[in-house]
């Protein structure tokens, strides 16, 4: 059986491209876009060819985010603070940042967002409790709280503006799990890539949490 890649988008935006997963997805998302626009506040490697655009952006800067989103067809939002920090640090990149992303998507007609959420939105449940995507959120940190807010933002922008989102509650996504705890939440790079493909191309997702 031949496996074919779906028709590429004209232009995909990947935020957080200088981060650990961003660097992995920079290569893995190329088949899904004629042009892959890469963004981060941190330094990134220069564009390798005409199929990449590299654009520095502070997610806390509303005008910069609006410029970043202009002309893209879908957004892979992996940007922002990715670990626990002070509330002030989380506020700009994760809370203001997610609002700026969705408001820019609305303004520029982007109808699909993939949001890198986190298992920390349910981090205060005890080990062994059986959960699903509909279990009440119990964030365990300012970081987890910001991701919970991002999921609410995704629901709001779908209900009000029809922007569809798949929120992926990422746990551990590394080449290999290093311990039992990581194994319980491990998402391989291959599985993440397949999940992103389905999140980008599956119709009528509304706001789906996985």
TrEMBL record:
Tree of life domain: Bacteria
Sorted UniProt keywords: NAD, Oxidoreductase
Any Pfam family hit: Epimerase
Domain NAD-dependent epimerase/dehydratase: 13-174
Keyword Oxidoreductase applies: yes
MF GO annotations: oxidoreductase activity
Family the UniProt entry places it in: Belongs to the NAD(P)-dependent epimerase/dehydratase family.
PANTHER family given in the database record: 4-EPIMERASE, PUTATIVE (AFU_ORTHOLOGUE AFUA_7G00360)-RELATED (PTHR43103:SF5), NUCLEOSIDE-DIPHOSPHATE-SUGAR EPIMERASE (PTHR43103)
Protein name in the entry: NAD(P)-dependent oxidoreductase
Organism (species): Pseudomonas lactis
Lineage, uppermost ranks: Bacteria, Pseudomonadati, Pseudomonadota, Gammaproteobacteria, Pseudomonadales
């Amino acid at each position: 059986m031949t496996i074919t890649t779906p028709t590429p988008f004209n232009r995909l935006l990947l935020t957080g491209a200088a981060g650990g997963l961003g660097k992995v997805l920079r290569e893995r998302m190329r088949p899904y876009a004629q042009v892959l626009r890469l963004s981060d506040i941190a330094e990134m490697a220069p564009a390798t060819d005409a199929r990449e655009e590299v654009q520095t952006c502070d997610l806390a800067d509303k005008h910069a985010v609006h410029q970043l989103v202009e002309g893209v067809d879908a957004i892979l939002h992996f940007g922002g603070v990715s670990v626990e920090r002070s509330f002030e640090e989380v506020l700009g990149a994760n809370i203001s940042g997610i609002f700026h992303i969705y408001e820019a998507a609305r303004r520029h007609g982007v109808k699909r967002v993939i949001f890198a959420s986190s298992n920390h939105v349910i981090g205060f449940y005890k080990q062994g409790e059986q959960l699903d995507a509909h279990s009440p959120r119990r964030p365990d940190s300012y970081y987890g709280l910001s991701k919970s807010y991002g999921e609410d933002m995704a629901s709001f922008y779908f209900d009000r503006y029809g922007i569809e989102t798949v929120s992926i509650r990422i746990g551990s996504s590394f080449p290999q799990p290093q311990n039992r705890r990581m194994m319980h939440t491990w998402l391989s790079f291959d599985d993440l890539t397949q999940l992103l493909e389905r999140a980008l191309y599956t119709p009528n997702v509304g706001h789906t949490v996985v």
